TrEMBL record:
It catalyses: (R)-lactate + A = pyruvate + AH2; glycolate + A = glyoxylate + AH2. Component of a complex that catalyzes the oxidation of glycolate to glyoxylate. InterPro entries: 4Fe4S_Fe-S-bd (IPR017896), 4Fe4S_Fe_S_CS (IPR017900), Cys_rich_dom (IPR004017), Glc_ox_4Fe-4S (IPR012257), Helical_ferredxn (IPR009051). This is Glycolate oxidase iron-sulfur subunit. Keywords: 4Fe-4S, Electron transport, Iron, Iron-sulfur, Metal-binding, Repeat, Transport. The keyword GTP-binding does not apply. It is an enzyme of class 1 (oxidoreductase). Binds 2 [4Fe-4S] clusters. GO terms for molecular function: 4 iron, 4 sulfur cluster binding; glycolate dehydrogenase activity; metal ion binding. The gene is lutA_2. It comes from the Bacteria. It comes from Aneurinibacillus soli.
Length: 433
């Protein structure tokens, strides 16, 4: 049965598209338009496709799949738009509308259901994944498989990503994270720390260092045990109902604690938490609670800065540059604090990166499912990264961190350049291991 235009307009957020005047200010800041050169792969092109659906000029919705799928969702276009187009809302709605109508093959449907409902939201499953990675490294299996060349035969360029995956925390280390940690000295704030799912499984060391930095800066930290995945990956994949369920679970979990801030250390997760108020705006039971949650949500750089910074040791002559997370910059609007913290390290030379605002091509799992397109974007990013001649590239998101590590390896720069998370760099400078 043919769907009514009213239904399509509602589901595809058609009314939001009317703010776009097709001026083209978004074109120079769009990484996919820059790398692919197609109007349909630009923000205004994608908006125009959605508009044509709402006006009945496009009836075959499959023509939207590739343009929307190849969008990084970096939201850089929103910062350039003179009319305030809510591109993120349009993209989110259109992707969800397409997913609702898409018939997946049985294996793909099973995989999506398993990952989105059984794995990412489950702390037990993510802990098992982290422990399995540790066993893979410690038993010698990693060395044997690397020598066999098997990794290079696996799909999604698994071998390339396996080579840059950080060392996993041991099961014993994972158990060492207490639920309540007192501030060192007089407490300035009480904060709840958001551990995330991927962060907790693969970057547990960064989580541990984050808590240590917060306590050093004067925060008492609560690690809420009932918290779950932020829902970012679900939203990017058009699984909005699951994203809302996860938001509700997190809100209910963090409401149990009386804290000043809810702190995260991943730009992508932080953006999802920051947008809970938007995500649940139409849910009467949750809208006010979501707004209260959003108002407390902070990136770790904001809280460390609010505490007055850290006592850091000199690192004379070290050349440092910063690759900002798109979602930290464009959604959470956090730009000043990470740079201030980096510059507070005595003795370093901070070099600003040209085109720093452009996405590195990570974008959740974009670099896995769209590897070639992602590498084209990364190669452009690395031109500007190499030009800084930096010793250290600092990022604020796990996906960006892996992507920049990949770029450094691809460019043969690993001897002279390294990529680290902001938390890792500050911990080094603070003498925390």
């Amino acid at each position: 049965m043919k769907e009514s235009l009213e239904t399509l307009r509602a589901e595809f957020a058609y009314e939001k598209t009317n703010s776009c005047v097709q001026c083209g200010y978004c074109l120079p800041v769009c990484p996919t338009y820059a790398s692919m050169g197609k109007e349909t792969h630009s923000p205004r092109g994608r908006i125009n496709l959605v508009k044509m659906v709402g006006e009945g000029r496009i009836t075959d919705l499959s023509v939207l799949e590739e343009p929307l799928d190849l969008c990084l969702g970096c939201r850089n276009c929103e910062t350039a738009c003179p009319t305030g187009v809510e591109y993120g809302v349009i993209l989110e709605a259109a992707r969800a509308a397409l997913v609702r109508r898409k018939t997946f093959s049985a294996p793909v449907r099973m995989l999506r259901n398993t990952m989105f409902t059984k794995v990412f939201p489950s702390k037990k499953m993510m802990r098992l994944a982290g422990n399995a990675l540790w066993l893979y490294e410690r038993t010698g299996l990693q060395t044997a498989i690397r020598k066999s060349g098997l990794l290079n035969k696996l799909p999604y360029h698994v071998g390339a990503f396996e080579a840059i995956t950080p060392g996993a925390a041991s099961p014993a280390e994972r158990k060492q994270m207490p639920q309540r940690i007192q501030a060192k000295g007089q407490a300035k704030y009480t904060v709840a720390f958001f551990t995330g799912c991927i962060m907790d499984a693969m970057f547990q060391r960064i989580n541990r260092l984050s808590v240590q930095l917060l306590t050093e800066a004067g925060c008492s930290v609560v690690v809420v045990p009932e918290q779950t995945c932020c829902g970012a990956l679900h939203a990017h994949a058009g699984e909005m109902d699951e994203a809302r369920k996860l938001a509700e679970r997190n809100i209910a979990a963090f409401e149990k604690e009386s804290v000043d801030f809810i702190v995260n250390n991943a730009g992508g997760c932080g953006a999802a938490l920051y947008e809970y108020a938007h995500l649940l705006a139409d849910e009467p039971e949750w809208s006010e609670r979501a707004q209260a949650f959003t108002e407390k949500s902070r990136d770790i750089s904001q809280v460390l800065t609010a505490c007055g910074g850290l006592h850091l040791q000199p690192r004379p002559g070290e050349r440092v540059t910063y690759q900002p997370s798109c979602h930290l910059t464009n959604v959470q609007k956090v730009t000043r604090e990470p740079i201030e913290l980096i510059r507070s390290v005595p003795g370093i030379e901070f070099i600003g990166m040209e085109q720093a605002h452009m996405c590195c091509g990570s974008a959740g799992i974009y670099n896995l499912v769209h590897y070639e397109q992602s590498m084209d974007i990364l190669d452009e990013k690395m031109k500007h990264t190499k030009a800084t001649k930096a010793d250290v590239v600092i990022t604020t998101n796990p996906g960006c961190l892996l992507q920049m590590k990949m770029g450094i390896e691809r460019e043969g720069q690993a001897v002279s350049m390294r990529a680290v998370h902001l938390v890792e760099y500050l911990a080094e400078a603070a003498g925390i291991s």
